[in-house]
Amino acid sequence: MNKVVLVGRLTAKPELRYTPQNTAYTRFTVAVNRNFTNAEGKRDADFINVVAWRKQAETVSKYFDKGSLIGIEGRLQTGSYDDKDGNKRYTMDVALDNFEFLESKNSRSQAVQSTPYDYQQEPSSNTNEVNLEDDPFAEFGDSISIDDNFLD
What we know:
The chain has one domain (4-151): CATH 2.40.50.140. 13% of the residues lie in helices and 41% in strands. The protein has 2 helices and 6 strands.
């Protein structure tokens, strides 16, 4: 099984390109925060390369900008090439299968205006705090159980 699921922010606006056969594609990088802190008590991020093809490439390059929050489902894809000095270089990308917009355009622009995301800036130290105004499940009322034992 080869499946990758990521949630992160784009480090730059994706640029739409075309192969010599006129197939649309785009490559972009997603910054994904780690869910633990380092020795200094700060969170690091991993920068993951993603490639999208055809209609998905067109959509991603049209609607996403630097700092946009995106959900990605894909698969790892390896490759290699010879650099200008003749050395073999190996690559690993996530080949995009599906993606989701994880915030509205208005919330993106408000977030960028109020707190621009700097990928070298460390996130808030209290990441477990939930803002109820942003909670998509707040209107559902009581908590729910996610215990799998009920299937037995």
